Amino acid sequence: MFFKKKKEEKTEKKELLYRENIRVNCASADKEQVIRSVGQMLADSGYVDQPYVDAMVEREKTFSTFMGSGLALPHGVEEAKKEVKASGIAVMTFPQGVDWDGNEVHVVIGIAGVGDEHLDILSTIAEKMLDETAADRLATGDVDTVYQILTGKE
Fold it and tell me: b/e per residue, 16-49, with b = 16+ CB within 10 A?
């Protein structure tokens, strides 16, 4: 299993990733547009309140979320934690790449984490990306491939 979840709430726990939060073969766009798009997916799915999307853009202004290997992991600034309702991710892939301050990005994964869960999410994704085959499949795969790589589920 990709992520283990703690049972802390009595309400229905959201999945970390839903297939509808994966968009593949996206047309290249500027970095801020991409961050807003992936952030809006998190908001539309109920993971975050709308102000979190702006906080993702603010984070990028102070610290790049480019991770190497064609991957960017935008997430909100610490002050925006109150806007996170549930931990979740949203994924966009760009065959032609996106210019991320001079770096070429092919996979963008927006992250929202309750408490310190974003650190676990970041480390798990980074670990997955160490496997070059998985990283290539993530960048070029269809929705089901991306879902399977990131969740371990079919």
Answer: bbbeebbbbebeeeebeebbbbbbbbbbebebbe
Using the predicted structure, report yes or no on whether residue 24 has a pLDDT greater than 60.
yes
Residue type, 146: V
Tokens of 128: 């997955």
User: What pTM was estimated for this model as a whole?
Assistant: 0.89
State the catalytic residues: 75
- 12 confidence band (pLDDT: 50, 70, 90): low
∠142-147-152 over CA atoms, to 5°? 135
Considering all CA atoms of the chain, what is the largest pairwise distance in Å, rounded to the nearest integer?
45
pLDDT band at 124; cut points 50, 70, 90: confident
For the four alpha carbons of 132, 125, 108 and 102, in that order, the dihedral sign comes to negative
